[in-house]
Amino acid sequence: MEHLALDALAAFILLNAVIGMVTYVTLLERKFAARMQSRIGPYRVGPHGLLQPIADALKLMMKEDIVPRAADRWVYNLAPIVFLIPCVLIFATIPFAPRLGLADLNIGVLFFLAVSSLEIVGLFMGGWGSNNKYALLSAMRAVNQIISYDLPFVFAALIPVVLAGSLQMSAIVAAQQGLWFVAYPVIGQLGFVAFLVATLAAENRVPFDILEAESELVAGFRVEYSGMKFAIIQLGEYAHMIASSFLGALLFLGGWLGPGSDIPAIGVLWFLLKAMLVFLVVTWVRWSFVRIRVDQILAVSWKLLLPATLGLLLVTAFWVALRGGAGA
Amino acid sequence: MSEYLAVAIFAAFIVAFGVVSIGVAWLLRPARPDAVKLENYECGAEPIGSAWVQFPVGFYLVALVFIVFDALAVFVIPWALVVRTAGLGAFWVMAAFIAIVMLGWVYAYREGVLEWK
Amino acid sequence: MATVTFFVVAVLAVASALGLILKRNPIHGALFLVINLACVAVLYLSLGAEFLAAAQVIVYAGAIMVLFVFAIMVLIPGKEETGPDPRRAVRLLALPVGALLFVQLAMIVRPRDARVPPPPAGGSAESLGTLLFTDYLFPFELTSVLLLAAMVGVLVLARRRPS
After folding, report:
1. Global ipTM
2. Which residue in A244, A98, A108, A115 sits closest to A167, CA to CA?
3. Extents of the domains making up chain B
4. What's the rounded Cα separation, in Å, for the pair A229 and A58?
5. Which of A46, A96, A183, C32 measures 20 to 30 Å from C95, CA to CA?
6. Longest distance between any two alpha carbons in chain B, whole Å
7. With an 8 Å Cβ cutoff, are A105 and C62 in contact?
8. What pLDDT, in 10s, does the model give residues A119-173?
9. Neighboring chains of A (3 or more beta-carbon pairs < 8 A)
10. How many CB atoms lie within 10 A of CB C35?
């Protein structure tokens, strides 16, 4: 019973940490984007706009919630929550420092991949349930995006798994004790770049944001959502984005490893710093590049990225098998 | 398996968070629906017909190829895990496996299936 | 604890399977299938087969997505499929065939021994990988040919014929 209470407490803390992080990462992104465009961004609510995310959350809570008459009410209303579950659940297996995570599963990376692949269900429910043409087109484009970038994402994420010989997150970090995987010659850098590109696409961010292309589809699958349901969808998207950043930092940048990381608090700080670095690179790309076309997305992935990541995985495995054989 | 209990509790909390926040918003927000407001949004134009119509999907063939590669990925995962200990033999086995599946990829490429139509 | 989980999940699985069959709207059916597959994944987990559970979610998430695509392309989602059944005779044949399948299944699943032996290597991904590359090498390699055949076959069948 005590064990159960402990689990519940940990889950509660993690949920609040995720929500807090998401809330403030939106501010970070807005500030960062503003600086890139020579603006100052949110400034008025609280010192340097520090209370802006809270004001936004309160505002969205007070807004009217409109359900279109033509919508499929059940599907439409359930979609935000169905979308939220996988987006936040992927945090369950991420350790923030040695033994500081909810569940350090044996199949950690696989759990992340499997759960995040369920994101499309909620997205499709929202896009189809609204009975809106923009939303439905957006949902179909989301499917296109996933069939294009899910496989490169999986194969790129498997490169560290091959190097570490484990799917467990903590074991992957432990294997980077000597050298971060990103520093492995050629394999590490190419793998990290492929991972970043695939993450960018998995998060539906520019230049892969065809499913919410403002100029043609307005806001994509969430165009009919307002008020708190809209807020929940946004929360889910950002949670997924941050989780992917954490995964990138963990798989390639050595997780919590760094000077002084023997102390858990400093380890957490290192991890957070690296994850935010990945996040800011993604944001930087978002504010610098233009959207690429639907057919280009398909072509880049299937003709280049898929064979490239598979080849890279094979090369990595060959190298590991060669060395492993010699060592043992 | 006890770790999965924590994961399940976490999932339950996520659902609870979603339900409670929508519920609280339901208490706080105004509700003044009218006929125009409840129309589907099409940038101000009146929507013609429902969105639920049949329409062609440009990538349905690629979607079919995707499932096959998804199955390939599922075979690659346990291999990625053991290739370190299993050595070069396991590597060549998987290399042959991937080569055979990639023949299908070459076929799809040559037939122009990987093109958006 | 495990028994309670089993019964809750099993009831949910059967209910969602019924929903999948009885709903006339193809998208609703696909959504019930999602619940059903999630339930089966949880059952795998409760048996200790973590890898199988995750693999099932990965593969079927992709499959469901494609189902969505086809529901939109081929059927008119949102409208119910009604009217006379063009293949009534064939479907009546499904009843005896289904019954036969059920009997077969019941014969396999019937507990032969009250003491079910533990699985030889466990359900972890490591043991599965090791088995795949030792005892089951040949069937494993053959699977690649199966995948190739599936891919080529589906492309040949599903392509729009030039008319």
Report:
1. 0.84
2. A108
3. 2-110
4. 13
5. C32
6. 69
7. no
8. 888 888 888 888 888 888 888 888 888 888 888 999 999 999 988 888 888 888 8
9. B, C
10. 17
